[in-house]
Specification:
about 75% helix; Arp2/3 complex 21 kDa subunit ARPC3
């Protein structure tokens, strides 16, 4: 979606997208089970509905702001975590921008959670494990429970974001042309 697409969007449509992004990003600051966060789903949503130049910024900015407010500081190795969430916006753009269906959403959520798992655990391996094949395998095997939680969070928040957007869209005839 080029920048001109933003200008062509109905203001209420853009406002709805922005409001959903803000609300879901703020949810990361609320108490939640470890790794059950909205950032991956937020990237998919932004990637599907915003121009690429803005889409990647949404999950990265939401993560950075919530990290700063929550007192978490991005260590250099956190760059890989941020990269993993950047990839969720790319996946949202590629899989969901032109056509969305429940099957495509499931595929995008699985792809996003898997890419994030692989990239973010590379960071964990480099920081906390011996830099050997054994250390690498131990790191990824230890991270499997976190993958399930990330997948759960991405699924729940993707349903919330895309579901809310589609319900609102259904009742906004002006949005049908944008």
């Amino acid at each position: 979606m080029p920048m001109t697409a933003i200008k062509q969007m109905d203001k209420s449509q853009l406002l709805t997208i922005v409001a959903l992004i803000i609300v879901v990003a703020a949810m990361r600051l609320l108490p939640h089970p470890m790794n059950v966060t909205p950032i991956g789903a937020l990237g998919l949503f932004a990637g599907a509905l915003l121009p690429h130049r803005m889409a990647w910024l949404v999950p990265v900015a939401a993560l950075l702001v919530s990290d700063l407010i929550g007192g978490f500081y991005a260590l250099p190795a956190m760059a890989l975590v941020y990269l993993g969430f950047y990839c969720s916006a790319v996946i949202g753009r590629v899989w969901l921008a032109r056509r969305r269906s429940p099957g495509r959403l499931v595929g995008a959520v699985l792809a996003s959670a898997t890419v994030f798992f692989v990239i973010s655990n590379l960071s964990a391996w480099l920081m906390y494990y011996p830099r050997t094949l054994d250390g690498f395998l131990q790191c990824y095997l230890s991270a499997i429970p976190f993958f399930g939680r990330s997948l759960l969070g991405d699924t729940l928040y993707a349903i919330l974001l895309f579901g809310t957007y589609d319900v609102v869209r259904r009742y906004q005839p002006r949005w049908q042309t944008s």
